[in-house]
Write a structure and sequence with these properties.
Layout lengths: L13 H13 L4 H20 L6 H11 L6 H9 L10
Helix pairs in contact: 1-2
Length: about 90
Amino acid sequence: MAAKSDRLEARLTSAQRREIERAATLASESVSSFVVTAAVQRAEALVVEHSSTVVPAAYFDRLVASLDEPDGASGLARAARGARRRPRIKAA
């Protein structure tokens, strides 16, 4: 286990502090350990939640099927090849 040297402070109401102390006692943990554990669990859950995108199954199926369809933008590639290029403006 890594040595703990960082500190984190928070302001809270008396009622919040009492609630946290009560919960820490029920969990047989120190207040510090209880708060750190709760904060880390919440942080991990939020990171996981925001690390993936969930879409309806029908949308996903259409997306995967569209990857198998031929490219419909060949006209754009042709237009880009035939576009007139302008010379770069040189700084004075």
